[in-house]
Amino acid sequence: MNTRFFRAAMILLTMSAAALAGCGAEEPAGKGAVSFTTWGEEYIEKEIPAAVFEDGWSVRFSKFLVVIGDVTIADEAGAEGGRRKETKLFDHVAPGPKKVEDFGDLEAKAWTKVSYEVRPAASDTKLGDGATADDLTMMQMGGHSVYVEGEATKGAEKKTFEWGFSTAIEYADCEGDRDGKPTRGVIVTNGGTDTVELTIHGDHFFYDDLQSPSAVVRFNAIASADADMDGEVTLAELSMKQLVDIDPADGGYGTGAVGDVNDLGAFVTALSQTLGHFRGEGECFAADPK
Amino acid sequence: MRLHRFMQRLGLAACASFSLLGLSLAAGALLGACGAEDTTSSKRVALTTRIVADDGVEAPFTNAFGWSIQLDHASISIGPLYYFDGAPIFSSGLLPRAPRRDALAGFFGVGVAFAHPGHYQPGNAMGQVLAPFLVDLAKGPADLPPGNGVAGIYRSGRFTFGDAAALDGYVVVVEGVATKDAMQRKFRVAAGVEDVLDAYGEPKLDGCAFEGEPDVQEDGTVTVHVKPSVWLDQVEFDGVPESAGSDPISLPTDGDAFRAFTRGLKKGSAVVFTYSAQETM
Question: From the centroid of its chain, how far is CA A260?
Answer without folding.
Answer: 24
